[in-house]
């Protein structure tokens, strides 16, 4: 597109590329002028005539010293301040910038730190061919019947990464859009209304179907790659051992029995056989091939994660244009080491559940749910699990489902609902539990779960489960490998060992979470591992393969191990085939001890390896390793109780078979207790276990163990593994379930009264507003904005007129960047044109008026004229509910007379809560 053909920039245009906006802002107040006030062409080339000249910024921006300029300031994900900022032991002074140390620096007018470096687009980036990015309030270009159902309350242009979402604005916008659709009388409009109502159901159907398809491919790939370490199928190289040898002993899922049956499969060839080696040389070949292939798989998964999902490679037109080094004064360059730096994320690493919790709570992470991450997550997950690392693929299915839901969702209003439904689908394909998946989305992931979202989540999970059932990934007719069925009831005296398993699961979950958090914080992030993540992955993979090959149970894959531990021993079997988990003589203490030693070794190896594995720069989950550890403990306890039963004359009371105790049941209860201790889930986990066993017979044992495990774990460590990962990564997550003790704290103790503001009684020029915007961004407060004030004629204070966000001000300034830098802009309290009573969506959707009639120097379009306000003498709990229940992005504080006192934005509130928890601990 040539410059002459490009549309003129306007208030309602979609976001222009970040570089273009930055160049225009740079020219404000400079002697050079841009040859065109047009956005770049489709290839992203800017039409500028001159390089930006030197810019003289206010001395306060480049020369002032603040507490944020600490060389040892830890990096974060651009979210909330690190707890180190809160160092003062008491909160005694009131009505200052803030009684909380660190909030003073957080809300100061200006900071000397050099601006953050925006990421650049790599050569392999596919962003040049991505779908068009429109503004959140972009026009739909329809004829609209205007109404007066909602008043204009400011336009939101876009959200940058790691900024909070204005849920109130989105709710009003969606309500106005739906009301407009209902007002249209034509038949076509009624059809569009039906389509709009059914669009959400159609999307969740497609999400459930595609999530199951991706899960099928991941499962089949992981099976084949895992068996590739051992050999290959002679009848088809693409077949896994399970498919090549369907009746092969412990790998048979059609008759899951922990009894080892030694059979020879002529179609399966080990690497020693393929190379013609036997004896000691053959064993060495098999050992080396296992290790080498495991290292290759883990290294490839890590390399894909590091190469394709690095956070600095995800750039969109919605990022801020002032977070660039060009805005630093060239005559007084700031030390880059003192600048607040955003910690690098690898979006495909880990399970993704903590980040999805953060997104659903109301924060933006551009690229985290994109197509590139979906591809890397699926491919890397198959390789990482197949390498034998102590991790699982079930948790990352939640991330995979969310990626699919985000890609298919166009409407911002529906994205929150679709993501909740996609999380339910992810758990449904992971455990074959659609009901449990719906409850997991409600209990653990979702922040907003009204009845409509619950129905759609349930439907999406059902579609995913049905699709996976039809695809039959394991060739057994079951959705998950470790789905089992028991045919015996439990006895009353067994409640005691079930409680004991709950205690053990809670203790393990609490200390596993503590150790994993400390490993990540003090070892991984403070040693050479943070600079060489690939080397860390290879080292841990090598240690894992060496340790796991020493034990027949640790050598099994995670789902295979859980399957064997859950399985019930047959009533009659050949004693010569009892080298597995079943005892030839169920009253033999010697056999029980031999089996217990192997299971204890597997328990400690799996538990220790999971501590250092979870958090590697590979896709990994925590569900299966936790289930495996708990199942080992439960199986050991079940074997010894069975032995006690046989030795103490209880055999006659148990019927003809003489077995009241099912060791597999104890393994299942122990697995549920351990997973509850790690993740702190309760109801959803119990339902998942019910669906795995196809019965409610064992509802009481599972519920009892889960409740005991959560109680014990909460007493030892209040936060589960997901919450600790959120804390470790400094993600801006506001926990709606946590209760705080406010004591004598008051709202004024958090309010910053010196926040940079726009005073309508002063001259607000393009240059002055640009400088205010720069000061806001370099201070790390790009998520906030500016209160718009006017002096009260009868009082000594100021009245609140409105509020404008940083992104909105940046967009407005980029439009008028070619004008005289001393030209004043206006903020009007009320609109005076013919759009005063139009709904926000009507304004943007189709009110036909020439854009040339819009006054570009009137920034009232972007002003929130009705911000949430609260009196400074209100209780702290009320302010907390504003952020939690209403999803407020900022709250304005007034005194008893209604005069402005300050603003508290969401990140400032999060920083305050973080300090409150730190002081409590």
TrEMBL record:
<feature type="compositionally biased region" description="Polar residues">
    <location>
        <begin position="29"/>
        <end position="45"/>
    </location>
</feature>
<keyword id="KW-1133">Transmembrane helix</keyword>
<dbReference type="InterPro" id="IPR001807">
    <property type="entry name" value="ClC"/>
</dbReference>
<dbReference type="GO" id="GO:0005794">
    <property type="term" value="C:Golgi apparatus"/>
</dbReference>
<protein>
    <recommendedName>
        <fullName>Chloride channel protein</fullName>
    </recommendedName>
</protein>
<feature type="transmembrane region" description="Helical">
    <location>
        <begin position="198"/>
        <end position="219"/>
    </location>
</feature>
<dbReference type="GO" id="GO:0005247">
    <property type="term" value="F:voltage-gated chloride channel activity"/>
</dbReference>
<feature type="transmembrane region" description="Helical">
    <location>
        <begin position="598"/>
        <end position="616"/>
    </location>
</feature>
<comment type="similarity">
    <text>Belongs to the chloride channel (TC 2.A.49) family.</text>
</comment>
<feature type="transmembrane region" description="Helical">
    <location>
        <begin position="287"/>
        <end position="308"/>
    </location>
</feature>
<dbReference type="GO" id="GO:0005769">
    <property type="term" value="C:early endosome"/>
</dbReference>
<feature type="region of interest" description="Disordered">
    <location>
        <begin position="1"/>
        <end position="50"/>
    </location>
</feature>
<keyword id="KW-0472">Membrane</keyword>
<feature type="transmembrane region" description="Helical">
    <location>
        <begin position="492"/>
        <end position="512"/>
    </location>
</feature>
<feature type="transmembrane region" description="Helical">
    <location>
        <begin position="418"/>
        <end position="441"/>
    </location>
</feature>
<feature type="region of interest" description="Disordered">
    <location>
        <begin position="65"/>
        <end position="88"/>
    </location>
</feature>
<dbReference type="InterPro" id="IPR046342">
    <property type="entry name" value="CBS_dom_sf"/>
</dbReference>
<keyword id="KW-0812">Transmembrane</keyword>
<dbReference type="GO" id="GO:0005886">
    <property type="term" value="C:plasma membrane"/>
</dbReference>
<dbReference type="InterPro" id="IPR014743">
    <property type="entry name" value="Cl-channel_core"/>
</dbReference>
<feature type="transmembrane region" description="Helical">
    <location>
        <begin position="622"/>
        <end position="644"/>
    </location>
</feature>
<feature type="transmembrane region" description="Helical">
    <location>
        <begin position="532"/>
        <end position="550"/>
    </location>
</feature>
<feature type="domain" description="CBS">
    <location>
        <begin position="863"/>
        <end position="921"/>
    </location>
</feature>
<dbReference type="Pfam" id="PF00654">
    <property type="entry name" value="Voltage_CLC"/>
</dbReference>
<keyword id="KW-0813">Transport</keyword>
<keyword id="KW-0868">Chloride</keyword>
<keyword id="KW-0406">Ion transport</keyword>
<keyword id="KW-0129">CBS domain</keyword>
<feature type="compositionally biased region" description="Polar residues">
    <location>
        <begin position="65"/>
        <end position="79"/>
    </location>
</feature>
<dbReference type="InterPro" id="IPR000644">
    <property type="entry name" value="CBS_dom"/>
</dbReference>
